[in-house]
Amino acid sequence: MILGVGFPNPIGWVIDKVTGFVGDVATAGFEVIIGGLTAWVVDAVVWVVGGVFNFFLDSTDPNVQADWFITGDGPYATTVTIGASLLLVFVLAGIIQGTLAGDVGGMLRRIALELPVSILGMIGLVTITQVLIRVTDALSGQVLDNFQDDISEFGAVVASLSTLSGGTATAFVVFVLGLVTVLAGLVLVAELVVRAALIYIVVALAPLVFAARLWPATKGASRKLLDLLVALIASKLVIAIALAVAAAAAVGAGSGG
Asked: Cα(109)–Cα(117) distance, rounded to whole angstroms?
């Protein structure tokens, strides 16, 4: 009011208009930015989901029977050579220990039973491991094939999230969830690569552990190593089941289930 007269204050009016205009511009700009980021992240989610599944099915299985691994100067060939030398050392150590302790039965058991088992383990481990890898891969593929429709629909469900009602808030939530999904896909790929590398490492170490099992104090190491190897191989099936459940759950959530 000016001089007590009912005339509007022009300064206050200008301030209100400028404030409203700046607020509208800021809001519109935020909506444009969030909308663009959301569309970009949704596209990335669709691409990552397809890439992860293709990588999972085609590119993650180690081949422990490859020539570079088991022949010549390969890692497994090298450790087998070292393990064969250690077998003789541990057999002699077992004989000496059995003689000093008067444990003739234990000494004979190590020579007649433990030694052949260690040799067979060195010879047959790569074949058995590769068979288990192929069986696990087949089972994993079957699990994913059973949910193939859900997996295909998953991309459509993710893409439709951007059309949900709720304005900027919903777009921001979709952006955050999509970003988390992309990061999770990259982490999953890294996990599969690490799994393959660990299988190679464990198999390469196995001949040394098989040789060491002739020594009573280290006999349990071979069991732990084999348990770890089986767990690494079977982990792909666990991941496949988790992915299939996630795809089914996403489709169910998208359809209101």
From this structure: 11
